[in-house]
Structures are given as structure tokens and as C-alpha cells.
Amino acid sequence: MAKPSGPTETAPSVSEQIRQCLGELSPSERRVARALLAGPPTIGLESSARLAAHAGVSTPTVSRFIAQLGFGSYAAFQRALHDEITARMMSPVEVYRQHQASQRSADVLGASAAALGEAVTASVASLDPDEFRRAVSLLAEGGRQVLVTGGWFSQLLAGYLASVLRELRPGVRSVGPSATERAGAIADIARRDVVAAFDFRRYERDTLELARSARAAGARIVLFTDPWLSPVADIADAVLTAQVTGPAPFESMTPALAVAETLITSVVDALGAVGRARFERFGEIAERWVRPWPDGAGQESRATGREVAADPPLQG
């Protein structure tokens, strides 16, 4: 798929760079960072004097902040930000058109393997260690309800994460995209609960509203998003980004799945013996419904084409 204009697929976006350097900034520089993260995306396209006024700092403070990000000038920062905003606002239709207009290899399998492999490697390798540790801690800590939700396509990832976490710890709930499910989830959110949200380009208003309601109730937020960052990033406690490059004219969920599976691996380690006990207990219960074929039944079914009823679930 043709890559949209914007930050390179292996480099952090401007928004990511800002988030990653927050701990290294002076209090006044941090005010500039917060103004950029919390304000409209175009605030950084205004003059440095206007940005300074928005943040309540001096113009030289803005210059020092831009230098901290690694840009040689405010103009270079604005060019990068402009490209990022352009990519962030690109519609699926435009991505599709770019794919159709691009030159593609005749080796579909090889090209797909290369594109997905590079995207997965870049996504996992570029995860910010501090953000990753916070996400693991929030999902592994007992006493918290974990609500997992996603969008139009990313609900598939949300369902997978919820299903696996449910085997490792109690209090995990998958929240579907319907208004009734999300309203019920918001009504049930308590302080210190966690919302794990998947939100990718063409960011969904409902996901942002759920996150805002959760934050207002005192909940914590773990966000899975793309390099251009969902608006939920402004209020998230941990942000895990994944590339969306793939072989099709549609953005790929494969790298985000790799990020989720990497997170699960660390959650298993964090839970230790407690997680293992839960997993074993879960497995014992599941065996009552999910059982292998009785001896010979599978072979007979395959040989005759007839279904052979398995034993009824164990009782008691």
C-alpha cells in the first residue's frame, strides 16, 4: 500500500515525541507540551508567539522546547506537524486511491510478508518502555475492573484482548460498540478501574466519549492507537502505538495485534503464580464445555459425514 505523507513508519510522530520527553522538560516547557497535546491539532501551525500566548510562556521558551524535540527551527517543526496532520486526517477512501495508483509487486506473497513483517517489527521495537510498563501495571493490578473496547474494525482486537485477559485475572469485561453496552459500561465504571481502548485513524467519537466519561469517574486509560495518535491520547495514562502498514488498500490490524500479544506476555509475567492459578482454574471450568472428541467419534464423523454427538457437559 502506498504510504501516506507524514512521519516515517518507523519514526515516532511529533505527538509521540512530545509525550516521550515530558519528564525531561522544565515546568514552562511542559506548559508548551500540554498546550500542543490538549489543544486542536493545528495549534502548532500558528506562529511561535501565538503558541507561547496559548501556553502562557515566553517565545524563547517555545524555541527551547522545539530544540528539545530535536528540530533545528520552528519552521522545521511546523513542516513535520503539517505532514502529520495531513496523514492523520486522511480518509480510508484516499488511502484506497493511493493504493490503486501505486506500483505493486507481482509477488503478492513476498510483498505481503515483507510489509507485515516490517510493520510488526517496527511497532514492537519502538514501544516506549515507560508507557509499556504502565500499561502492564494497570492491566495486572488486582482490584481493578478492566473494560476493553474498540471501534469499527478494532473491536476484533478488543475482543481478543478481553478474552485472553479474562483467563488470567478476574473483572475483565468486553464492551461492544453499541450505545446500550457503552452506556452500561460508563454507568458501572468506578474509581481506579481501567479502560483499554483501541482507536485508529478515522478515530471514533463514541470511543473518545467513553474515555472521557471513564476519566471523569476516576478510571485509568490504556490506549492502543496508530502513530498519529487518537484524541484519547490526550487523557490516556499509557499509550501504545502500532503501525498500520499492510499489503491491502486497508490499514492493517496485524501490528496492533502483535503489540497486544506482547503486552499479554508481560501481564502473564507480572501476575506470576496468581495468574497461573487463575488460568488453571479457568481451564478446569472450560473443559466442561470445550472437550475433545470422544474416542473414535471424530474419525467416524469424518468418515461418514455424519455428526456424532459428544457426551453431555459434566454435571456438578
Tell me about this structure.
With 316 residues, the protein is α/β, with parallel strands linked by helices. The chain has 2 domains: 14-104, Winged helix-like DNA-binding domain superfamily/Winged helix DNA-binding domain (Arc Repressor Mutant, subunit A); 121-282, Rossmann fold, CATH 3.40.50. The chain contains 13 helices and 5 strands. It has helices spanning 14-20, 27-38, 48-55, 59-68, 74-88, 92-101, 108-125, 129-140, 155-168, 179-188, 205-216, 254-286, 297-304; strands at residues 146-149, 172-175, 194-198, 220-225, 238-241. Residues 1-9 and 307-316 have low confidence and may be disordered.
Keywords:
7% strand; five-stranded parallel beta sheet; Rossmann fold; disordered C terminus; Arc Repressor Mutant, subunit A; 2 domains; single chain; disordered N terminus; alpha/beta; 316 residues; globular
